[in-house]
Design goal:
The protein is mainly α. It has twelve helices and no strands.
Length: 287
């Protein structure tokens, strides 16, 4: 998905971050050469990773137009010359798409199948506003399959009318519907959901860091437990800064002081999702 799990969809920013597996080759050369998805050398499954790498190379900025200008100078590093003009046009629309994505309201409970379905439908409509059918397939086709599989799994697991054996069979059936290369990615997504459920339980229980690390290590391994602990710290820091800003606003600080505090507490990218994060706090499940 664009920003990980649907819970993160309201946190999109202008600047896209590099993924761990980004190719070092310009699209159209090396491992991303034509043949992976049809005859068009640009519209391959590597397109989105190449655009994400291009955006990462452009650096951080809260101004979409400034970012687009940077892309023009850098596009040749990530796309072969014969693809660069078309790639730049798609990348510019991808910037606009990410900005619009950041304006979508995140689901109040990302582990609720109904809320997740609505979030996926909203994002799908948004994607189709910016990209035509072939572009959409190249950019999001594989991710869409994974999203639908994850949604199906959530719906099965939450279906109280099914017995344990019926759930097992239904889950196995959803697995067979995915192309083999995507099954490993889907398994990773399932682990993410399990980790999110475990974290929600830790938060409700007020579990300390040592307890969290021990249980996560047992379930996912020490390396994953360390990454999740870092996410915990980042989430606490984010919420502490939200608390400080929200308190200042509730206290009736004037606009100039609020703007100064906003600039001090949040990066330009964080400011893009600030209002959405504050709005989400009005619901009991938001935190």
């Amino acid at each position: 998905m664009d920003t990980g799990h649907p819970a993160a969809q309201g946190q999109g920013s202008v600047q896209a971050h590099a993924n761990a597996g980004l190719t070092p080759y310009p699209l159209g050369k090396g491992p991303t050469a034509p043949g992976a998805a049809g005859s068009d050398p640009l519209l391959t499954p590597g397109l989105r990773d190449a655009i994400e790498a291009l955006l990462h190379d452009a650096g951080e900025t809260s101004d979409p137009e400034a970012l687009k200008q940077r892309l023009e100078a850098l596009v040749g590093r990530h796309f072969s010359p014969e693809l660069a003009t078309r790639a730049l046009a798609i990348a510019r629309r991808y910037v606009d798409y990410r900005v619009a994505l950041g304006q979508l309201k995140p689901p109040t409970n990302p582990l609720d199948p109904h809320a997740m379905r609505l979030a996926l439908e909203q994002r799908q409509k948004l994607r189709m506003q910016f990209f035509d059918g072939d572009e959409h397939e190249a950019l999001f086709g594989q991710q869409q399959l994974l999203d639908q599989a994850l949604l199906a799994r959530l719906e099965i697991e939450r279906n109280t009318a099914l017995s344990a054996e019926e759930k097992r069979k239904a889950l196995a059936e959803t697995e067979t519907q995915l192309p083999a290369p995507l099954r490993a990615q889907r398994s990773e997504s399932v682990v993410h959901v399990g980790a999110a459920q475990q974290t929600a339980a830790f938060n409700a229980q007020g579990a300390d860091d040592a307890t969290r690390f021990a249980q996560r290590s047992a379930a996912y391994g020490a390396e994953a437990a360390e990454r999740l602990a870092r996410l915990d710290r980042e989430e606490r820091d984010w919420n502490a800064r939200l608390d400080q800003y929200q308190q200042a606003r509730s206290a009736g600080q004037d606009a100039a002081r609020l703007e100064q505090l906003r600039q001090t507490l949040f990066t330009p990218e964080e400011q893009l999702r600030l209002e959405g994060a504050l709005a989400a706090r009005t619901t009991p499940a938001a935190r």
